[in-house]
């Protein structure tokens, strides 16, 4: 049950981010629906309960929104990739293998999530302990702040109630 709530909140945060700067009528119906569903979940006393028992911290939703905005800004993306911790991850042999796998690149461009999940290069990277250690040691907040100064980032609560 709570996993579903987290999924709805994460999808809604991503949808809200993708709709930023658009008129509501110009946004895709799915994005509008997910954003509305997220807002409904987070309203009133039920919203406080949802936020307090959600398995993901509020920072996770902030990161989702900021990462979505990052991908829309080429200059910010370059700064993100220049962050030392991110540079170490990108230089890892498993990440280099991902970047050089034509099937994986094609599946990503087509947003073929099933093909991505079946890709052995990606699965090897995900299960590599040395890559996991690098990813876990990355201070994502600092990397995002480096790429997009806080005045460019969304304003949401920074901690769970």
Notes on the protein architecture:
The protein has 161 residues and is mostly helical. It folds into two domains: 1-56; 57-161, no CATH class. It has helices spanning 2-19, 29-41, 44-53, 58-71, 74-82, 84-91, 93-99, 102-109, 113-118, 120-126, 129-137, 140-147. Helix 6 (84-91) packs antiparallel against helix 11 (129-137). The longest helix is centred in the first third of the chain and has 18 residues, at 2-19. The two termini are 20 Å apart. Residues 153-161 have low confidence and may be disordered.
Proportion of residues in β-strands: under 5%
> How would you sum up the global shape?
globular
Uncertain stretches of 5 or more adjacent residues: 153-161
Could you state the order of secondary-structure elements as H and E? HHHHHHHHHHHH
Blueprint of the fold:
Elements: H1 2-19, H2 29-41, H3 44-53, H4 58-71, H5 74-82, H6 84-91, H7 93-99, H8 102-109, H9 113-118, H10 120-126, H11 129-137, H12 140-147
Helix pairs in contact: 1-2, 1-4, 4-12, 5-12, 6-11, 7-10
Entry summary:
Helix content is about 75%, strand content about 0%. It is built from 12 helices and no strands.
């Amino acid at each position: 049950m709570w996993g579903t709530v987290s999924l709805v909140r994460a999808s809604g945060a991503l949808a809200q981010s993708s709709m930023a700067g658009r008129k509501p009528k110009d946004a895709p119906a799915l994005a509008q629906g997910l954003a509305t569903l997220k807002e409904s979940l987070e309203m009133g006393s039920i919203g406080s309960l949802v936020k307090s028992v959600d398995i993901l911290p509020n920072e996770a939703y902030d990161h989702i929104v900021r990462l979505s905005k990052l991908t829309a800004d080429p200059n910010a993306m370059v700064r993100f990739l220049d962050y030392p911790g991110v540079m170490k991850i990108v230089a890892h042999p498993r990440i280099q293998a991902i970047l050089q796998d034509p099937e994986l690149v094609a599946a990503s461009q087509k947003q073929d999530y099933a093909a991505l999940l079946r890709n052995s290069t990606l699965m090897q990277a995900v299960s590599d302990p040395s890559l996991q250690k690098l990813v876990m040691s990355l201070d994502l907040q600092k990397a995002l702040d480096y790429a997009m100064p806080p005045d460019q980032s969304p304003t949401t609560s920074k901690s769970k109630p």
